[in-house]
């Protein structure tokens, strides 16, 4: 589903990604962990070209993103993204947040889009909040609406960029449980997170990044119980 | 006091003209400002350079000078060109002079547009980067994201500074007196010329400006409060 080879990203003199190779199979849940500044978010943002890679190749669902002829807007329709800070549109209700792109981008009728939106709101447990504005919702509720918004485009892949990092602790669970449901339904997911419990429970594979490289990867069992790399051992000893 | 009362109708009609020219100029200024402000943010270098030139010129020179250029300067050049054409090709001259009202609208609109361009630019830039990213991540084009996500939020934020621009323009239209446009201040001048009651008349003029400005700024406050929801 996603194939990344030799990916580099530089911001001026700062080399954030230094040669990333990885692939994500359909229906696989890949969790990316690592210390801050290791390039996890940048890596994730290269997968839908929110960051333009400096060099390397990113292929999503058979489409080479680095090819200048690729219509990135088409690709992004198939790649949903959930942000750390939710980024809901504050001037629109929960329902309108979800229906905007399906109507304007996919060309759905309002009726169709609203039907999908209501189903998704039910799925994330917010049926009663359809007409609430983002500032009337808690952080956890906003993030669930944001997930529904991304899902409304019926993407083939979902990217999660530290989706629970900006939440109060008691709201983390409700967001993670929506993500677990999604994984169980077979959604292909790439998740950058500090939630080691989630990585262990839901991840098919865990990537540990440090200083712009994938230093170690393996099943959650391997990564958490039998880490080989020294940096990973230090990281885990601090975080667990 | 009697002079003040008897000149009030004339002054109030002047105030109406002041409001008229301000409203028209700020309205056209909004259109110019939106175009120039978005051009300035555009990735097209030529477009953004042109926008910078426009904004810098009209913010960097006094409105008074702009008014006389539009009313005295440009017609002169046009007439010179016309004369040459008349001599060269024997065409009949058509251009005589630019009407005062038109000159006033052109000068004030161009000036206002430059300030409003900056207001719109700041408004768009004040919208959190994540909004554009979220919109683009859903597959929207840059234009769609601007239209459906960024601009609707930016418009709410620019209302207070747009109100300030309106107020500034309302007062600055007094400069149109130099080309004989009979707005509030010019009418005051004319009355003073006839009655020699400078203190009373100019004080009345000032008071009328004050009433207009204060009531308008209350209106903006009210609008601002009403639009607060959802941001």
From TrEMBL, chain A:
Belongs to the ABC transporter superfamily. This is Amino acid ABC transporter ATP-binding protein, PAAT family (TC 3.A.1.3.-). Pfam families: ABC_tran (PF00005). Signal peptide: none annotated. GO terms for molecular function: ABC-type amino acid transporter activity; ATP binding; ATP hydrolysis activity. Residues 2-236 form the ABC transporter domain. SMART domains: AAA. Keywords: ATP-binding, Nucleotide-binding, Transport. The keyword Transport applies. It comes from Desulfofundulus thermosubterraneus DSM 16057. CDD domains: ABC_HisP_GlnQ.
UniProtKB/TrEMBL annotation, chain B:
GO terms for biological process: amino acid transport. InterPro entries: AA_ABC_transptr_permease_3TM, ArtM/GltK/GlnP/TcyL/YhdX-like, MetI-like, MetI-like_sf. It is a multi-pass membrane protein. The chain crosses the membrane at residues 20-39, 46-74, 199-220. It is found in: Cell membrane. Residues 15-220 form the ABC transmembrane type-1 domain. It comes from the Bacteria. GO terms for molecular function: transmembrane transporter activity. GO terms for cellular component: ATP-binding cassette (ABC) transporter complex. Keywords: Amino-acid transport, Cell membrane, Membrane, Transmembrane, Transmembrane helix, Transport. SUPFAM superfamilies: MetI-like (SSF161098). Its main location: membrane. It holds the Pfam family BPD_transp_1. Belongs to the binding-protein-dependent transport system permease family. HisMQ subfamily. PANTHER family: GLUTAMINE TRANSPORT SYSTEM PERMEASE PROTEIN GLNP (PTHR30614:SF20), MEMBRANE COMPONENT OF AMINO ACID ABC TRANSPORTER (PTHR30614). This is Amino acid ABC transporter membrane protein, PAAT family.
């Amino acid at each position: 589903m996603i194939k990344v080879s030799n990916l580099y990203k530089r911001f001026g003199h700062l080399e954030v990604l230094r040669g990333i190779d990885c692939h994500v199979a359909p229906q696989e849940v890949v969790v990316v962990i690592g210390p801050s500044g290791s390039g996890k978010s940048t890596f994730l943002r290269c997968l839908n070209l929110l960051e333009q890679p400096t060099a390397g190749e990113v292929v999503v669902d058979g489409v080479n993103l680095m090819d200048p002829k690729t219509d990135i807007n088409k690709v992004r329709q198939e790649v949903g993204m959930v942000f750390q800070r939710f980024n809901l549109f504050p001037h629109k209700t929960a329902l309108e947040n979800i229906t905007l792109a399906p109507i304007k981008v996919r060309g759905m009728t309002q009726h169709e889009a609203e039907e999908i939106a209501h189903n998704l709101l039910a799925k994330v447990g917010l049926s009663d909040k359809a007409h609430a504005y983002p500032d009337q919702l808690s952080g956890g509720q906003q993030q669930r609406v944001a997930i529904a918004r991304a899902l409304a485009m019926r993407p083939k892949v979902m990217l999660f960029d530290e989706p629970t990092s900006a939440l109060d602790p008691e709201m983390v669970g409700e967001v993670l449980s929506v993500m677990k449901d999604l994984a169980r339904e077979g959604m292909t997911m790439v998740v950058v997170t500090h939630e080691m419990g989630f990585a262990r429970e839901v991840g098919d594979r865990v990537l540990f990044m440090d200083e712009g490289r994938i230093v170690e990867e393996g099943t959650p069992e391997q990564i958490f119980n039998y880490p080989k790399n020294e940096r990973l051992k230090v990281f885990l000893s601090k975080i667990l | 006091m009697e002079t003040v009362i008897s000149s009030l109708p004339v002054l109030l009609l002047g105030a109406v003209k002041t409001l008229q020219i301000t409203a028209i100029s700020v309205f056209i200024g909004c259109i110019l400002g939106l175009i120039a402000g978005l051009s300035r943010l555009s990735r097209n270098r030529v477009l953004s350079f042109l926008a910078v030139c426009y904004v810098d010129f009209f913010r960097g020179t006094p409105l008074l000078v702009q008014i006389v250029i539009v009313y005295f300067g440009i017609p002169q050049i046009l007439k010179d060109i016309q004369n040459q054409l008349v001599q060269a090709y024997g065409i009949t001259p058509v251009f005589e002079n630019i009407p005062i009202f038109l000159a006033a609208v052109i000068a004030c609109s161009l000036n206002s547009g430059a300030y409003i361009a900056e207001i719109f630019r700041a408004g768009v830039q004040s919208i959190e980067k994540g909004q554009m990213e979220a919109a683009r991540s859903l597959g929207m084009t840059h234009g769609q994201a601007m239209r459906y996500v960024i601009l609707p939020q930016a418009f709410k934020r620019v209302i207070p500074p747009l109100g300030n621009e309106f107020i500034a323009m309302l007062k600055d239209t007094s400069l149109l007196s130099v080309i004989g446009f009979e707005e509030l201040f010019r009418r005051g001048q004319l009355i003073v010329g006839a009655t020699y009651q400078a203190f009373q008349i100019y004080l009345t003029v000032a008071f009328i400006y004050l009433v207009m400005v204060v009531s308008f700024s209350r209106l903006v406050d009210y609008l601002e409060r009403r639009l607060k929801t959802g941001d």
